[in-house]
């Protein structure tokens, strides 16, 4: 299983990328930032190769399927999407400070996947319920959506930190750190954009899921806990976007809702598995 | 929570929130219209629906929040709110969509522009105006213009339809709710277990204790399972024959993820099990001649020479993970014993030394000198089929499509207008470009910049 070996290595690459992004903000030397960007890119490349390899290995085992079928694979894909999304934002905004708040999420997901005893990293065959063409589109849309919300959460934390410092004077060390955070206006726009993208993707994820359920379970909607919680998460972001477009909510309020939405997303992803339901094979 | 209690709380919360909006803004009395068109009502409803949905995942399924009166009342209120808001705002959007842009803007509109939105050209005013008009037409289609001796105005627009995105979203949500109601009213969801070889003509409706007759019959010809090398299930397959008035409507395999549609009714592979009437092959040794029997639950036979009567109490294809087993009740004039005969009794005994002392009824030789040997159990499976009809499903799909299309318009398009003024200044031709948008400013600024670059014959710059 070369792929899991590479993937556990990538975990450490993301750890170091995180540390260097933070170091850059503490020391104010761009060298650390460039190193961190390089590490993130290298990690993403290695991870992409490992995913391709895992896909190929599944075919060699005679049970070929895309590496999106169990908990381990979903964590890896989530981390992959978070890093990809972050690097796009870094390239578009030319700001490396965002990395200190998004790369840790990728590291945690990878570390949980690679080192938690509860997560089985073996390539498993698909049980009958998962043998569907909808598997890939459902998982990809949902997890790209999750990645957007994760990134939006990172930006919201930055927003709240920045806003707090704008209001008061802290000690020297924290100030250097916080001055590297982009302006609240930029963060507000980034939160909005990533939430819009996540909202559309999760919407598509819910729709592809219902089409699949319509073909597999005999009902497009069964109020299964996972379905219900994905709808709740989606409604929370719907509320935020609606209030923003109609009532002009900005800044702190949207940042706080993005944090609540992220908590709901985590519960949809992880917490729901402890409730009985149709998605229980994800355990 | 009782129905009425829940409903009262919801109405209380909603009206308090809706009231608050009114007291905050203007001291207007709450009318029926202002209640239903308030944005705060929408926000409160979204919060309440999310909270109720969350509650439903923690209470036992028997409570069934999602079909309770008060949950449906919330959805009903949301529908009314959507309709009321849409009706109230549609005329405004229509006006914005259809109103002609007036290219003749006041001086101040163009004079206060930042330097990068103004450029000078050595071309004559007339030829510059022709060039601008041409470019605008290429980019935006229709161009409004007003040309006078010393000044020319142009305007063009795109994305006017973006005012309607929000209505597509609202319509989508309403259509989804309508589709769900259609399904609940005119569809059904049932379940039927059919054993191999048996035929069913009715299904048990979900949540009710009544049967629904189908217009045709379904026969399960065979149920088969297939496993991967590691023991995980690979395939569940029911070979079905659908029959009506003696002729075959359809015959084919039903697999998970591959439902079969017959006369508007869908069949899904959703479960399986043993029909419970497995046939056991028993051999009774110890007499002059071995007795060989094929038996089912309830069957009786005699052991010749022993004057004993054997009754089969249970036939299990896998008892507690120990493989096939049969429970028999043996009675003679002197003795009356019940015991199990396992197919794998040798292995079980090796793994559990002293088993027969500890659990005498696992001893197949309890009716000595006879020993009961179970040679095998042939299982008859049943297949569990989910049977549904949902005329609302295509409606819900259409609603979802409207909704997503509406979101695309709302988030990724904007009504942008571009205004250009061309006049002569300092012996050159002065071109001023500006615009307005219903969406985000940076997008408009990019658009204006790109247009200016194009007018000046430059490669579009920047991101």
What structural keywords apply?
heterodimer, A: 283 residues, mainly alpha, Four Helix Bundle (Hemerythrin (Met), subunit A), 2 domains, B: 463 residues, alpha+beta, TATA-Binding Protein, 4 domains, eight-stranded antiparallel β-sheet, five-stranded antiparallel β-sheet, 11 helices, disordered N terminus
What report would you give on this structure?
The complex is a heterodimer of chains A (283) and B (463). Chain A is mainly α. Chain A has 2 domains: 1-126, Up-down Bundle (Four Helix Bundle (Hemerythrin (Met), subunit A)); 129-283, no CATH class. Chain A is built from 9 helices and no strands. Chain A has helices at 2-27, 30-60, 71-93, 99-115, 134-167, 172-179, 184-216, 225-247, 252-269. Chain B has 463 residues and is α+β, with helices and mostly antiparallel strands. Chain B is built from 11 helices and 20 strands. Chain B has helices spanning 3-25, 32-36, 39-58, 69-98, 107-111, 125-140, 165-186, 345-351, 355-358, 393-412, 441-455, and strands spanning 118-121, 143-147, 151-158, 188-195, 199-205, 211-227, 233-244, 247-255, 260-262, 265-274, 279-285, 291-295, 300-303, 308-316, 325-331, 336-342, 371-378, 381-389, 416-425, 428-437. In chain B, the strands form 4 sheets. In chain B, strands 8-7-6-5-4-18-10-9 form an 8-stranded antiparallel sheet. In chain B, strands 1-20-19-3-2 form a 5-stranded antiparallel sheet. Chain B has a 4-stranded antiparallel sheet with strand order 13-14-15-16, with no helix packed on it. In chain B, helix 1 packs antiparallel against helix 3 (39-58) and helix 1 packs parallel to helix 4. The longest helix of chain B has 30 residues, at 69-98. Chains A and B meet through helix 7 and helix 8 of A and helix 3, strand 7, strand 10, strand 18 and helix 10 of B.
